[in-house]
Write a structure and sequence with these properties.
Length: 305
């Protein structure tokens, strides 16, 4: 089963549905600077940890062999595909170096109890490319957005990376950091600035078929008036492999825009492996309070080369 995962533009159109709920905070530029320094700092720490781990592990024959893989000499595809769909959470594993993974889907969201209508986005797209051992480049977008009522158009584009910084040792989890920037493109995007997001990921393999995953995310978005709004989110995911091909999950996630009331949600879904390199998925979600979306549904497929 591919463990959880998402970026905000793939799983949901958060810029409209949730970040739009954030109150206008007038002290803007300092928040933006702090968040961007935090993102750059996470990149520096992640690169440092990855380099230290590589040096530490380089003494064994197995890891020496692994270090020989590169973009020109891709690592072998071992085990089953591990995707970022269809959950809100994201997992800690990077795509093998030299390999590329595509994840596509469609999402429907009943926004704010029907007060502002429904929203369709497709094709939800995430492209992941392994550039180093335990590090991948990421490019994602929600695709095209249809709103009823509202402005239709293309979603923003997010670029970033995922760096696995440690493996699980006992009860100490496998961890990763996932920094990214949302670019000010897309006709339906509210932001006119480069908006940062930092995601911290922790995962525990509880048994051969049971896994626990937690995320903590902090970011910002800038509107057309150059007002920056902060956002914090976290999630807890529990996944279970029922067979070698079929996996199910349930998760809770909360999104807290600035000092406003948070949106609390629960969703559940399933993944099915057609082959080790091709996966189908589907999920449904429900809001737990009046700030959250009432209902959402997504379905998609992922493959790697």
């Amino acid at each position: 089963m591919g463990a959880a995962p998402i970026t905000y533009t793939v799983r949901r159109s958060v810029s409209k549905q949730h970040i739009g709920l954030i109150p206008k905070i007038r002290v803007r530029n300092m928040k933006r600077v702090i968040l961007k320094f935090l993102l750059l700092g996470s990149l520096f720490v992640a690169f440092s940890r990855a380099d230290m781990a590589h040096e530490k592990e380089g003494s064994s024959a197995e890891n020496h062999s692994r270090s020989e893989y590169s973009i020109q000499n891709p690592a072998p595809l071992e085990g089953a595909i591990f995707t970022g769909r269809p959950s809100f959470s994201t997992g800690p594993s990077a795509v093998p170096v030299g390999r590329i993974q595509f994840e596509f889907g469609y999402t429907y969201t009943d926004r704010a109890g029907g007060r502002v209508g429904g929203q369709h986005t497709a094709p939800n797209t995430l492209i992941r490319f392994g550039i180093f051992d335990k590090m991948e480049f990421r490019l994602s977008s929600g695709g095209y957005i249809w709103r009823d009522p509202g402005k239709d158009g293309t979603d923003a584009v997010r670029i970033g990376a995922k760096i696995t910084i440690r493996d699980q040792e006992g009860w100490v989890p496998k961890m990763a950091v996932q920094p990214s920037f949302k670019l000010p493109v897309g006709s339906a995007s509210e932001s006119n600035d480069v908006d940062p997001l930092v995601q911290l990921v922790a995962a525990w393999k509880l048994s051969e078929r049971l896994s626990l995953l937690m995320n903590a995310n902090i970011g910002s978005v800038t509107d057309d008036k150059d007002d920056t709004e902060s956002m914090f989110a976290y999630s807890t995911y529990l996944g279970r492999s029922l067979t070698d091909e079929l996996g199910v999950f349930v998760e809770y996630f909360g999104i807290f825009p600035g000092d406003d009331k948070g949106a609390h949600n629960v969703d559940m879904g399933a993944t099915y492996l057609l082959t080790d390199n091709l996966q189908l998925d589907a999920a449904v979600g429900f809001g737990l309070n009046d700030t959250a979306d009432d209902f959402s549904a997504t379905a998609g497929f992922s493959f790697r080369l």
